[in-house]
Amino acid sequence: MKYDFDTVVPRRGTNSYKWDSMPREAREDILPMWVADMDFCTAPAVTDAIRKRAEHGIFGYTRVPDSYYEAVTNWFERRHGWKINPEWMIYTTGVVPALSAVIRALTVPGDKVLVQTPVYNCFFSSIRNNGCVAETCPLKYENGRYALDAEELERKASDPAVKLMLLCNPHNPAGRVWTREELEEMAAICRRNGVFVVADEIHCELTYPGHPYTPFASLSEDALHHSVTCISPSKAFNLAGIQIANIVAADEEVRKRIDKAININEVCDVNSFAVDALEAAYNGGEDWLEELKLYLYGNYEIVRDMLAERLPQLRVVPLEGTYLVWIDCSALGLPSAEIVRLLEEEGRVLVNGGEMYGETAGCFIRLNVACPRKLLLEGLERIIRTLCGLISGTRTCPSGPAGS
Question: What is the DSSP string of 188-213?
């Protein structure tokens, strides 16, 4: 490979409150495999652009130039066949602030917002923080795979109190990349029931062979004008700390309402490095991204194969997109919160439990595999030793060959 994804780079921390509250000594031997960022240096083109911007030496307020809009629109037209009009775009500091502003703009307190669970935990907080109520519609989980439950979605969407649906496309944490047919069915249901769609498509670049990403707004003119889309290079290029995202809203009145909410929420300015980082990622990071995806999928295959061989009681949900592996631990007979605790205290690995994503029907954990293979293998060994102990009652498990 042209790019290096194997070098272990020391982390400078994580945005998790739990990590920050740990005593320093408690962090020393622990592997954080939870928060959705990557343990890889970003694309060289981005690093070069940030270095050049730093050398400029002036970090005041930044005007967003035409070249910024050109980088976004060219990228999505070239890679995904979606022609975005630059006038539809509103920049902001991140997808979560974007979601919050959109909810604020398009609802009033007490309205219901539909989500398909299990789903990204910040959907719930963004809904709650705007005084709205999350209306959950569980996805179908059959034969180890998630699917749209169209009948249940229709039933929930028919409630007059439901005004919006937050769509996760690709879906975190279920690992689904929704097909065009599935998205069209969602669009038809929402349109019939007067539900406006807000598509979080932050993971859109991280899809694997046979599972192409379809922008929801590209389905039809009707879908375009009855939805808004939140996008960012932050997941694909590991730029969460740079804080940059865009809202795409084709309807002028909707866009005006969102722009007002962005200003009310005080997330209308971006930092001086963000513009250069985004342009460099979209203009010069494509080759790096394609190699990254190969490496990430290889990591997923290692998780799938090692657990199938050495801990077959666990079921790894197929990964179509993202770098977040969803693992069914129901056979262990414990709630996911207890498994998370044991992995932290005995295995010294941090993962996320299913409850935080609204999963109530089983026991799941989410594992971030966006790390050098050496760290992945170490984390898997710790997970296997700890969870084998639950099954055998000995807290020990035979080791297998590295990478098996």
Answer: HHHHHTTPEEEEE-TTTT-B-TT---
Q: Phi and psi of 279, rounded to 5°?
A: -60, -45
Q: What is the pTM of this model?
A: 0.93
Residue pLDDT tens, the chain, 404 long: 899 999 998 765 554 444 555 555 556 789 999 999 999 999 999 999 999 999 999 998 889 999 999 999 999 999 999 999 999 999 999 999 999 999 999 999 999 999 999 999 999 999 999 999 999 999 999 999 999 999 999 999 999 999 999 999 999 999 999 999 999 999 999 999 999 999 999 999 999 999 999 999 999 999 999 999 999 999 999 999 999 999 999 999 999 999 999 998 888 889 999 999 999 999 999 999 999 999 999 999 999 999 999 999 999 999 999 999 999 999 999 999 999 999 999 999 999 999 999 998 889 999 999 999 999 999 999 999 999 977 766 444 444 433 33
Please give the structure tokens belonging to residue 370: 């966006």
Question: Which H/E stretch holds residue 281?
Answer: helix 272-284
How far is residue 284's CA from residue 129's CA, in Å, rounded to a whole number? Answer: 37
Tokens linked to 234? 């932050």
Cβ-Cβ contacts under 8 Å for 342 (sequence gap 6 or more): 386, 387, 390
Other beta carbons within 10 angstroms of residue 134's beta carbon come to: 18
Distance (Å, whole) CA 365 – CA 357: 10
The CA distance from 94 to 102, in Å, is: 12
Contact 183, 214 (CB under 8 A): yes
DSSP state of 345: I
Can you tell me whether residue 134 is helix, strand or coil?
strand
Q: Rounded to the nearest 5°, which phi and psi values hold at 364?
A: -135, 155
